[in-house]
Amino acid sequence: MAAYMVFTREKTLNQGELDTYMKVVGPTFEGREFTSHTVYGKHETLEGPPVEGVVILSFPTYEAALDWYNSPAYVAAREHRFKGAEYRAVIVQGL
Questions:
Q1: pLDDT grade for 95, boundaries at 50, 70 and 90
Q2: φ/ψ of residue 60, rounded to 5
């Protein structure tokens, strides 16, 4: 059963850290099966506080998604995201 990772950027804190994150995140996916459904595409907040951007990724299983998120490569990369902006990240199992 597929799993979806949804990242919403709520507030940018340091654009330089986000730029670094964008440079280092790509290699964290090497050798992993995943699909990018949207990466900061056009969006409109319909309910709740506005967000600056949305990323939606899918992985073949919930475990595969968590394995990527907790991998040493992504743990190192995401530190730049943590310093660069306030995000909300959610994993949800699909149908």
A1: confident
A2: -65, -30
CA angle 27, 31, 33 (to 5 degrees): 105
3-state secondary structure at position 64: helix
Over the stretch 43-70, which tens digit does the pLDDT of each residue have? 999 999 999 999 999 999 999 999 999 9
Strands 53-59 and 3-12, bridge-based pairing: antiparallel
Q: Which domains does the chain have, with CATH numbers?
A: 3-93 (3.30.70.100)
Q: Which of 43, 51, 36 is nearest to 5 (CA)?
A: 36
Q: Are 37 and 57 in contact (CB under 8 A)?
A: yes
Q: Which helix (H) or strand (E) holds 76?
A: helix 72-84
pTM over the 0.90 mark: yes
Tokens representing residue 52 in the block:
């600056």
